[in-house]
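Thread: "does anyone have the structure for this chain?"

Original post by V.I.:
We have the sequence but no experimental structure in hand. Need at least a predicted one for the grant figures.
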Amino acid sequence: FLLGTTLPTRPFVPGDGIIALLEYAGYTASSIRVALSRLCADGTLECRREGRKSKYRLAPQMIETIVSVDRRVEQFGREVSWNGRWTIVLASIPDSLRSTRRNMKSRLGYLGFGRMRETAWIAARDCESEVEDLIENLGLDGMVDVFVGEPAGLSDIDELLHRCWDLDALTAGYNDFVVRFAPLVPTNARDDLTAEESVLRWMRLTHDYRELVHRDPELPPEFLPDAARSLRHRVVETYATIHDDLFERAQAHARRMFELDSAP
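Reply from O.Q.:
Generated one for you, tokens below.
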């Protein structure tokens, strides 16, 4: 995400600059080079040789992913009115498509689904169109059924919530994030950071927030424990207070490291 977030126009940047930035986070140059090679091999990055140096940029298809993730991050925590609709996904995928099945589970989790039964997932919102896109992209026509509606009056909603989602872990995740980044909330704490420290803190903040957003089912506020509801608001507030300032510093330093000071 370092390239896509700091450099959305996709210029080629020197591998040495990428290595130098990631070394701030404690990675070794050799492990970074291996990772860059793998990302090129799987189509995430494009590589271009200039003399003895390698330069990299995001592959075109990754832009859509970056935009999708950015949209999810921007909308996270917005409390919109809920119409009471749930989405249920029933899937019967053969063992011969085991990797596709794993991919489907991962993407359903990203959409906020919790596992209700061995082959059934549920989300506390109407996301029929998103699931239809998932089915089409994974080639699962005829293997997945989608229903949108409301639970019967006999359903124990509280039991359902705790069966499908670990609400205690969700609350703990919110609290850990708030505690971890509380020292950076005061403006003077960020002013005292060096350029290298700003990059490192920004990478950690962005990574941890996106990981939290990725795992969060974004349940309607009325379904969250009181502590989780309050903490989710504090998570969003903490991120908003810190991010833009750190991002401006990190982007400026990244452009210098990537030799793009004069680039548009």
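V.I.: this helps a lot. The chain has a mean pLDDT of 87.
O.Q.: and The beta strands are 13-14, 45-50, 53-58, 86-91, 114-117, 120-123, 144-149.
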